[in-house]
Design a protein that fits this description.
Keywords: Glycosidase, Hydrolase. This protein is of the alpha/beta class. The protein is built from 17 helices and 26 strands. β12, α15 and β13 form a beta-alpha-beta unit. The two termini are 28 Å apart. Bound molecules: alpha-D-galactopyranose.
């Protein structure tokens, strides 16, 4: 990652799909984009079939016209390579490039993204198109960014076809060197799974009983690497033919898309770009957004990133597509900016008349320009223009929350002690608890440098490396405050249990030892002797070398330690062996952040989010009451001086350039 967001200030942008509209609409589009303050558009994502209508014929004329109109209108372009959805002539000629699921079913054309990431024939045709795009548009002054494919892994994060199987075997041979090493790593002595050669290995297709978990885990790793490899193939063409334009792709750092290890992708991208949609199926959709934004910033190494796509209102793909209420569009967009986004993009410019996404919101709704939604979009464009000076300012955080895709994949595999234990649930819970205290957390890889953080939280890091254990040990000895929660440090990178007692990797550092897990049945709770309530998980825990802070008073293990604390070197290591409810999680977060001397922004509470980006204080009030928050300076949104407190109405926001900072 080398580039900052290549658009001016905090730019507003959108996907633009002009092929869905007659040319007469294109001119009106550019006029309306200017009215709304659109600074960039993503062009060409799904244009392949019309850019290359036949195998040996390209038709760029209409696309040139659109590009010139945008350029004349002063709108910058994030140019897609147009390879996301192959045209029917290609899938008809080469059905062997279609993806196959774990049950052996082909995913047929008729939708989008029907291609196998390992398919050589798909790659060959995609590269030919990318070369055309790069030669034709690679030095056009409007083109500021290249956008490889689209949401790589969306719909087809894994493919189980025979071509993928061969690629998987090559990946395994490269990882393990010999089949004996693989047998050892996969524990194939179990259930007669011993392999004689790599040729006998298949992708983990459906099986009669529980599949080998390390096989599944390695297939997840391979699938992430294989898509990244595909990204590299396109990127290398772009770098060769259009060396001055940065290259990225839109990531999906969300709670439902766990198939790519974006920490390993980041070094290959010139800029981190992310798509995010609020998900009404989650218990705390806005908290999930904040978490995702902090994780995206972690993927970006702490720097700025680009929100490539989001929704002005409802999406079309949830069972109940909740529309944004007045003011929510601004608030949700500012939340992204507060947490490091230096540009706010949307899907899409004009709501489609036809196709599978015709009920997805857009900047211009079906109702047209004369609509509240478009007026809100214009207002958002103006607000982002006012806060443009924020771009590039670093988000300030002195808490780190450790996160790992490998651990997520491994933790959520089947045949574990509790089907209700879910990795992101644990991570979200702790992120939300600190956020509600006015604390900003960086969400970072477990092997990151932790030395600058006052508090490190490690929720349910089931799979942990020796390096992570050593790093946490050094962090605490050096004066850090650490919280590790249940079902952490259980296995190594091969998903083998760390023997001798749980939580294996962190047992010594924490001074505790669990001999057995005692998960709780759904709907049951336990009480701790400090009055806390918890559910889902308990452990037969002893604390040979730690102070017991709280014990269970009921449930399967009355009198057993639930929360422990150990002073180590200059620091302190806490262990929490159960899932506290929201109030108790908040109380423990309060104690830990106070003990650690973590910066807390005064005025934060559930529904009122405060974040500091450099000299700018963001106040986001999602609550139903006005709030007063201490601040001195100038509110960029209202243009009003702030002397002592800033008043923020219910559903409103302030972005204060603070004095003297
Ligand atoms: C993603 C995709 C878009 C569109 C939207 C719908 O952002 O990139 O093409 O499908 O989702 O929410």
């Amino acid at each position: 990652m080398t580039s900052s967001v290549p658009f001016d200030g905090i730019s507003m942008g959108c996907d633009y799909n002009p092929e869905q509209w007659p040319p007469s609409v294109w001119r009106e589009d550019v006029t309306l984009m200017r009215e709304a303050g659109v600074g960039f558009v993503t062009l060409g994502v799904f244009s392949w079939a019309l850019l290359q209508p036949e195998p040996d014929r390209y038709d760029f004329g209409w696309f040139d016209e659109v590009l010139e109109l945008l350029h004349e209108g002063g709108i910058a372009v994030d140019m897609a390579t147009a390879t996301a959805a192959p045209p029917p002539w290609l899938t008809t000629a080469h059905p062997e490039m279609l993806p196959v699921d774990a049950e052996g079913r082909t995913l047929w054309p008729g939708s989008r993204q029907s291609w196998c990431p390992s398919s050589p024939v798909f790659r060959e045709h995609a590269v030919a198109l990318v070369e055309q795009m790069a030669r034709r548009y690679g030095s056009h002054p409007a083109v500021r960014l290249w956008h490889v494919s689209n949401e790589l892994g969306c719909h087809i994060g894994k493919c189980w076809c025979d071509v993928s199987a061969a690629a998987f075997r090559r990946w395994l041979a490269n990882r393990y060197g010999s089949i004996d090493v693989l047998n050892d790593a996969w524990g194939t002595a179990f259930w007669s799974q011993h392999y004689r050669s790599f040729e006998e290995v298949l992708p983990p297709r459906i099986t009669p009983a529980v599949p080998n978990p390390t096989h599944e885990l390695d297939f997840a790793r391979f699938s992430s690497d294989e898509l990244l490899d595909y990204y590299r193939v396109e990127r290398d063409v772009l770098r060769r033919l259009s060396p001055d334009v940065p290259v990225t792709t839109n990531l999906m750092v969300s709670s439902h898309q766990s198939e790519q290890d974006y920490f390993s992708w980041a070094p290959e991208l010139d800029l981190i770009a992310q798509d995010h949609y609020l998900d009404a199926r989650l218990p705390h959709p806005h908290a999930e957004q904040s978490f995702t934004d902090d994780l995206t910033r972690g993927v970006a190494g702490g720097g700025s990133w680009l929100l490539m796509e989001s929704a002005t209102s409802a999406v079309n793909w949830q069972p109940f597509n909740v529309a944004k209420r007045p003011g929510e569009l601004l608030l949700d967009s500012l939340r992204h900016v507060a947490r490091g986004a230096d540009g706010i993009g949307f899907f899409q410019w004009r709501a489609s008349r036809a196709g599978g996404e015709k009920f997805h919101s857009a900047l211009v709704p079906h109702a047209g320009r004369d609509s509240e939604r478009f007026r809100e979009v214009v207002g958002l464009g103006e607000a982002l223009r006012r806060i443009g000076e924020v771009a590039g300012s670093p988000v300030e955080a002195d808490v780190a929350l450790l996160f790992d895709w490998n651990s997520w994949w491994a933790c959520d595999l089947s045949s574990h002690p509790s089907a209700e234990l879910r990795y992101v649930d644990a991570v979200h819970r702790w992120h939300r608890a600190v956020t509600e205290l006015g604390v900003t957390a960086d969400v970072v890889h477990p092997e990151s440098d932790l030395s600058r953080y006052r508090l490190v939280i490690v929720p349910t890091l089931y799979l942990s490396s020796d390096a992570t254990a050593a790093s946490l040990d050094a962090y605490v000895r050096g004066g850090g405050q650490l919280l590790v929660t249940y079902f952490s440090g259980i296995v190594d990178e091969s998903d083998h249990i760390r023997l001798g007692g749980y939580p294996g990797a962190f047992r010594e550092l924490l001074g505790v030892r669990a001999e057995e897990f005692a998960p709780l049945l759904p709907g049951t709770t336990v009480t701790l002797d400090d009055g806390s309530t918890a559910d889902r998980w308990t452990e037969v825990l002893t604390a040979p070398d730690a102070e017991v802070v709280a014990r269970y008073t009921d449930g399967p293990l009355p009198g057993t330690p639930a929360l422990t604390r150990r002073a180590v070197g200059d620091g302190v290591a806490w262990y929490l062996a159960t899932r506290l409810d929201d109030a108790a999680t908040a109380a423990l977060a309060d104690r830990l952040t106070r003990d650690a001397g973590v910066t807390r922004l005064a005025g934060a509470e559930p529904g009122v989010e405060l974040v500091r980006r450099g000299r700018y204080l963001f106040v986001l009030n999602r609550g139903h009451e006005p709030v007063k928050v201490p601040a001195h300076g100038y509110d960029l949104l209202t243009g009003v001086n702030v002397e002592g407190t800033v008043d923020v109405q219910a559903g409103g926001a302030a972005v204060v350039r603070e004095e003297g900072s």
